Amino acid sequence: MKIIITVIVAAFLMSAGLIKQDAPSLNEPSGKGWKKLFDGKTKKGWHIYRNEGDGSSWQVIDGALAFVPNTDKSATGRKGGDIVTDQEYENYHLSLEWKISERGNSGIIFNVKEEEQYEHTFHTGMEMQVLDNDGHGDGKIKKHRAGDLYDLIACSRETVKPVGEWNHAEVILNNGELKLYLNGENVVSTIVWDDNWNKMVAGSKFRDMPGFGKYKKGRIALQDHGDKVWYRNIKIKEL
Questions:
Q1: Structural domain contains residue 101
Q2: CB-based burial label for 221 (10 Å; 0-12, 13-18, 19+)
Q3: pTM of the prediction?
Q4: Average of pLDDT values for 96-111?
Q5: Is residue 213 part of a domain?
C-alpha cells in the first residue's frame, strides 16, 4: 500500500511541475551487434585526445557524459580537450543523444586518426555539428548549423530541437557511403573519398589539412568547444 501511495504522490508532483523528470531516451537501438561506448557511470573506454590534459572537465552527470567548462582561474593544467574512444572503428552505425547549453557549440567528430602530427581531432576527423542554432554565431553560417556535416554539407532539412532538449543523432559510414540522421530523419547523404568529395574538401576550411577525411578507420570524438554539452546512450554497431 505504501508503494502505491508513493507512486501516486510522485506522479502528482511531476504533473504539477513540482519535481523534474528528465526526458525519456530517444535512442534505443535494438537487435544484435550493438555495443555501448559509454556505460552511463564511468569514462571507461575514453581518453583525452593525445592525452593532453587530465579530462576532469568531462564528467558523468545523471547518466550523461557532460563537458563542464572549468571556471577556476587558479587551476593549472588543461582540464578539457576533445574526448575520444580508446578503439578505432571502420564501417559502422553510431547512435547517440546530445543536448547543448544556451549559446553552446560542440561536435561529434568521427574517423579521427590519433597521431603526433595531428594536433586536433578535426585535422583528420569529419564532424556532425552540435549547436544552439539561435544563440551561437555559427548558426548564421551555412554548413555550420546543427546536424550539418561541418563546413561541407548543410542539412537537407533542419530537424534540431530547441536548446536544452535531447536530440538523437546517427552517423552511418559504410564503404564510403556516409549518412547523417538527426531526430530520425536523414539530413545529409554523401560519398566519401571520391573525386566529388575531394573537390568539396578543397573548397572548405579543411583544404590545408592533408590528413582531413582521408582515413577509413579512426576514433569517435566528442568536442570540447568550451561550452557545456551532454551526450548519452552512445552506442555503435560495426557493419
A1: yes
A2: buried
A3: 0.88
A4: 98
A5: yes
